[in-house]
């Protein structure tokens, strides 16, 4: 390191410090593998007459996290040496593939990935190579999409994001995202589904039936943002489930109808409705708002709450501890924000599978590795779990 600092050696590229260290480590590992294969160390007289021996080396260039590295791969006279760290025929080490997948999951296009690898690692890769590497996750995606799920979930959040997919012409298609909160309060992305151009009960029945067929027998609360046909599909799939409209979505929808200068008055007026202790008190707060100057000025806000009333009022029956965790779909929206980032730079996708591949990689890269991390436990979960155990005592079993 001192010599590298003194000479100003590059970090990557031909002759770069990391490249040379990577070469040295790999070649030492290959020599150790050869010694294990032959049964004796290099230059050991005990190997004479053993029937096999070293037979020089062959050059081989492999792509690694440090860039392209040219190795001297040892040979044996009998041609039986089969190295494991750099397998025969392999031109990329596993870490390099993972680097491509990581860049792909973060929203970089094929062109961006090629440019990035060329700039940072001095490696030129073809579009076909990137496609081959990313296509390798298709089977993994299918297994993930069909994995069995727990029987009972306290909460499932459902939302949709939109992506452009070419189907003759480029059209916007919804991708449905279901995120469950398990008994430990941990988030889990249950699945991704590409829907038709219009949302409806038929589409939602197919999605929810798949979740049921994968093992979900009961859900206490399904939180959504008023997606068309979803409430009926939920009750048909899980008759005991409570469908809860996202309160935050109601507030946002209300504020869209109002001038920004009135938001400071509207927010507390709406809070009086959704923070009411009972449904009767909430009705009184809504009536008071409708009769106020703001209600008269913005009748569309009153209509928004009246239209969503049947799906909003279940929220008012919950204890305060449960209200805190079902207050909004922010938990799934934070995931959607990450998924949107992975699709934003691509313009459109050539197929449904291409879209799902990118979104799954984003889930795997950004969500799944941390799924059991404390930061991914729902806020206020312990107090909420106690409330769930009492409020849904015939359906929630804590072991």
Automatic annotation (TrEMBL):
GO BP term (any one): DNA transposition
Pfam families hit by this protein: Transposase_mut (PF00872)
Keywords for the protein's UniProt record, in alphabetical order: DNA recombination, DNA-binding, Transposable element, Transposition
Annotated GO MF terms: DNA binding; transposase activity
Database matches in PROSITE patterns: TRANSPOSASE_MUTATOR (PS01007)
Entry annotated with the keyword Transmembrane helix: no
Region (Disordered): 36-61
Classification via PANTHER family: MUTATOR FAMILY TRANSPOSASE, TRANSPOSASE FOR INSERTION SEQUENCE ELEMENT IS1081
Role summary: Required for the transposition of the insertion element.
Family, per entry: Belongs to the transposase mutator family.
Protein name, as recorded: Mutator family transposase
Source organism of the structure: Streptomyces adustus
